[in-house]
Amino acid sequence: MDYTINQIIDYYADASIEYVNIITNQILPYKTDGNRSTASGISGIVIPLSGSANFSLNNTRYAMKEGTIVHAGSQMKLKIETVGDKPWEYAVVHYKTLYHASVRLDDEHFQIKIKHMAKIKDYVYQLIKFSSEPGSMARIQVKVTFFNLVNEILLQAKHHVDDKNTSVISKAISFMKENYADEFSIAELAEMLQIERRRFSELFEQHTGLSPIQYLTEYRIRMARELLRISQHSIAEIGELVGYQDNFYFSRVFKKQVGMSPLKYKKYLEENDIYF
To answer: Organism's domain of life (predicted)?
Structure first.
């Protein structure tokens, strides 16, 4: 399955999850481990520690090696085939979801591409250590380490996406900020950047959390609010200055973004002496 890093972050941010356990395993070169299923009632985060393998969940194959982490749902058909002449060693961090938010991925399988694995592996080894120790303090350390591990995975995944797409998205953002007053479509911007429009929108949202049109709209309205604060232009003139030739459409977009019309916003600034 394909999910954006922002969808995955939203899932972990909104759901309530609880650590269950961690297991490690090693499969020798040229061996296959199959005809079994993932654990019942819980989810798993599969983290490679060394070597490479083809890791299949419900007949979807993931090429697992350094820099690739896979999420597995409950009771999925599992098959593992080692790749190369080295053993494949991996850890599976099991957790359960106590509260499901609007974005639900706990029973889905997907991969997460990672920029750097070193700190993630450190947390894995810490989790193994604390999980084997008795006492309340060890249980607290397990909880803390588990959430640190999830946080680090998401941070490194975000860095991977950002680094990969920084150049084209940075150019797009710069163009929007420099030309927000002009009329142009997202399709025209994508063509200028020599990237297919749909792919551009996907990359832009992965990088910023907003679609290109949402980003452009928010930036234009931010500029309009500033002009309403410092200039003596009419509402229609300000709309044109930020890229809206239709005054009624500008007012509608402004109200949707700000919660009040441009005229009411201007009066609010004047009545509250907000001019600096």
So the answer is: Bacteria
